[in-house]
Design brief:
- The protein is α/β, with parallel strands linked by helices and about 250 residues long.
- It is about 40% helix and about 20% strand.
- The strands form three sheets. Strands 2-1-3-4-5-9-12 form a seven-stranded parallel beta sheet, with helices on both faces. A three-stranded mixed beta sheet has the order 6-7-11.
- Helix 1 packs across helix 6, helix 3 runs parallel beside helix 4 and helix 5 crosses helix 7.
- The structure holds NADP nicotinamide-adenine-dinucleotide phosphate.
- NADP nicotinamide-adenine-dinucleotide phosphate binds next to helix 1 and strand 4.
Length: about 250
């Protein structure tokens, strides 16, 4: 099969490309760095010619509210038109568990728009909603930074390793379209504050993570259920300690 991975140079994209190539599929890693831009349309028709499946794991270069919305809307429209023209039979997109519960956040209004365009496109699809990557926990800490503390909304979370979500995305790309949403999460649920504290401690960061009812998650209020999957998610196998040890070993190479 010919498979085009939009965002194929990114954290998840590069790993998805590796899995698909290892299973013998002609896989194109498409992104601006390789001359394929879903916002301007550059290189898109050529990349998609003869493609059976498109996997979209691109992300907005800017997290500013209007820029994220413009990115996912423009990219989604251009991709949909190019996929229809090329006769693509399956669109797989990576989204976030709880996207539909996070509309107070500018970033998630972008993801809501992306998902809506996919549902309305007429191209058979699978939306893979993942929980937060362990690799993103530092970004969560940075967003809540307040002097010697990190303020976080009280909530549960079930984070996942990027290796586990990339494997799941590759598996869904090779399966039949679901025309709906599947959820993927890490093996272990915990409090958001405990996850961030574990990360701070493991990285030798002396700040203290605290729960604060007034704190927001990228602009959104959370409750205990907002970030966690519903019944029967696919589960990754890597917990925090194994992920942290592995990421340190990779960084030391
Ligand atoms: N962070 C989390 O915890 C989390 C959780 C669940 C789901 N997600 C979703 O996971 C997806 C992938 O995230 P990631 O962390 O792997 O992203 P990333 O490492 O930031 O990579 C982003 C990719 O998007 C590409 N890209 C940017 N602008 C583009 C354009 N105009 N046209 C085509 N490609 C473009 C980049 O290409 P260049 O390298 O060429 O610039 C890069 O390959 C996102 O959609 C995100 O919403 C994230």
């Amino acid at each position: 099969m010919k498979i085009v991975v939009i965002g194929g140079s990114g954290l998840i994209g590069a790993k998805v490309v590796e899995h698909l190539r290892a299973r013998g599929h002609e896989t194109i890693a498409a992104s601006p760095a390789s001359g394929v831009n879903t916002v301007t349309g550059e290189g898109l028709a050529n990349a998609l010619a003869g493609a059976h499946v498109v996997v979209d794991v691109a992300n907005s270069p800017s997290f500013e509210d209007d820029a994220v919305l413009a990115f996912f809307q423009t990219s989604g429209r251009n991709l949909c038109a190019a996929e229809k023209a090329a006769g693509v039979g399956h669109h797989v997109a990576l989204s976030v568990v709880g996207t539909d519960r996070l509309e107070e956040s500018g970033y998630f209004r972008g993801k809501i728009a992306q998902e809506a365009l996919i549902r309305e496109s007429g191209v058979p699809y699978t939306i893979v909603r993942s929980t937060q990557f362990f690799e993103f926990v530092g970004g969560i800490a940075q967003a809540g930074a307040d002097g010697d503390t990190v303020r976080l909304p009280p909530a549960d979370i079930q984070p996942i390793a990027s290796d586990d979500i990339a494997l799941a995305v590759a598996d869904y790309a090779l399966a039949a379209p679901i025309n709906g949403v599947v959820e993927v999460a890490g093996p272990e649920g915990m409090r958001l504050v405990d996850l961030v504290q574990r990360y701070l401690t493991a990285t030798g960061d002396g700040r203290k993570a605290i729960e604060d009812e007034q704190a927001r998650y990228f602009g959104a209020r959370l409750n205990d259920d907002t970030l966690v999957p519903g019944a029967n998610p696919r589960l990754g196998s890597t917990g925090f300690d194994a992920w942290f040890a592995r990421s340190r070993a990779v960084a030391a190479r």
